[in-house]
Amino acid sequence: MHVDTNGDDLSPASEYVEVAVEVFRLLADATRIRIVLALRDGELSVNHLADIVDRSPAAVSQHLAKLRWGKLVRVRQDGNRAFYRLTDEHATRLVIEAIRQAEHAVDETPGHHA
């Protein structure tokens, strides 16, 4: 059985509920959402991410450190440059679903239903 279809850990009493709350807290920031979206196609350097999300490299590094702490991203060092990638597809799926839900909150007929 595929892991995502196993409902054993999806009960209201699941030990993962509190950890899920922490994941949502980590993602409750527009810059972090933009970082996840930028990384969905692959690995990027801090400077490239900073350009994409229109923030300073220092600010992006701080956000990446939090995402790394939450195990949502991984880092690869190449000399003095750091390259980040998503740990798995789950962060992207969470962000996409949140954006789709936001479309419902804003538009009577969201574009993804057209």
Task: Describe the 3D structure.
With 114 residues, this protein is an alpha+beta fold. It has one domain (16-113): Arc Repressor Mutant, subunit A, CATH 1.10.10. Helix content is 52%, strand content 12%. The chain has 5 helices and 3 strands, in the order H-H-E-H-H-E-E-H. It has helices at 17-27, 30-39, 46-53, 57-69, 90-106, and strands at 44-45, 73-78, 81-86. Strand 2 and strand 3 (81-86) form a beta hairpin. The longest helix is centred in the C-terminal third of the chain and has 17 residues, at 90-106. The N and C termini lie far apart (33 Å).
Q: How would you summarize this macromolecular structure in one to three sentences?
A:
The chain is built from five helices and three strands, in the order H-H-E-H-H-E-E-H. It is of the alpha+beta class and 114 residues long. It has a three-stranded antiparallel beta sheet.
Task: Give the helices and strands, then pairings.
Elements: H1 17-27, H2 30-39, E1 44-45, H3 46-53, H4 57-69, E2 73-78, E3 81-86, H5 90-106
Antiparallel strand pairs: 1-3, 2-3
